[in-house]
Structure formats: C-alpha cells, structure tokens
Amino acid sequence: MSRPYRLAGLLRLRRLQEDQAAADLATANAARRAALVRQSRSDDALADHDFDPATDVGAWRSAVAIRASLRSLAVESAAASSMAATEVHQREMAWADARRRAVPLEKLAERHEEAEMIEDLRQEQIVLDEIASRGPARDTLEVEL
To answer: How many Cα atoms occupy the beta-carbon half-sphere of 48 within 13 Å?
Structure first.
C-alpha cells in the first residue's frame, strides 16, 4: 500500500504558479513583438518621408510638420519597445523564480515515487518468496468428484 506524497498540494500550487508565470511571459513577449513591429513601421514611415525644398513655402512647412509628427511617433514607439523589453525581462525573472521554487518539490516527488516503487517490489518479492517456500506439493489442488 503506497503512501500519498505529503507535499503534493504544495507541488500543484508551485506548478500552477510556474504555469501562470510562463503565461505572463508569453503575453509580455507578444506585447514586445507588437511594439517592435510598431517601432519598425514608424521608423520606416519617417525614413520614407522626404520633403522637397523646391516646393512652395506652405508645402514645405506641411512637410516639416509631418516629419516632426513622424519623428515624435518614432520616439514614442522606441520608448514603448524599451518598456516592453523591460517587462519581458521582469517576467523572465518571475518565471525563473517560480521554476526555482518548483524544482526541489519535483525532485522530492520523484524520490517519493522511487521509494514507493521499491517498497512495492519488496512486498511483491516477499509474497513470491512465501509462495515458493510452500513447495510444489501444496500448490497442486486435488479435486475429488
């Protein structure tokens, strides 16, 4: 008869915490990828926009205002990417911490399972030895009709 693992509830909790930390990390990575795409688009839009100094003053001023707006958008996108990278780093640390807390309990659970398996095999061997010690005469049953 095997004994239940006493820390099974705590191990389940640690695994749930690790799973939650991994999900948070995945969300942060997705947000970081989206921020990098926005930053790339903003940088591309700024690089693609040029202004022709040969145009009239009104068109030139409009082009300058557009470039200033695109530059502001590019700076905001770069800041958002940086913040997203920081968030990813924090989530990676949280996941690593959750994993660090779960690993010792997992190792203890493995040791418990091994000890239980050894005990089960020992008990089975005792039964087999008992059967073998009875001898062949006792193993055969005679049925009278």
So the answer is: 6
